[in-house]
Amino acid sequence: MEDNLIPLSSLKKKTTGKITSIDGGHQIKKRLQAMGIYDGTYVSVKTKQPFHGPLTIEVRGTQMTIGRGMANKIRVEVIE
Description:
Helices cover 18% and strands 41% of the residues. The chain is an alpha+beta fold. The chain has a 6-stranded antiparallel β-sheet. A hairpin with a 6-residue loop joins β3 (42-48) and β4. The protein is globular and about 30 Å long. The chain starts with a strand and ends with a strand. The model has no long low-confidence stretch (mean pLDDT 93).
């Protein structure tokens, strides 16, 4: 299972992952929780902007855009 853990920013487009942890302080976790992003949530990457730009992700049927820096803090288990 450990081998399958990657940052959300490394998840390939049209691939689903399960969030296993979020690195960062209370404010980052609180902000992500307000968006419905927390441990155990399934997330898929819809688009990735070039040059380390933001990602469009889908969580519980809702699409949203998050910055690459924030996506780097979210660890996911790749769902095959």
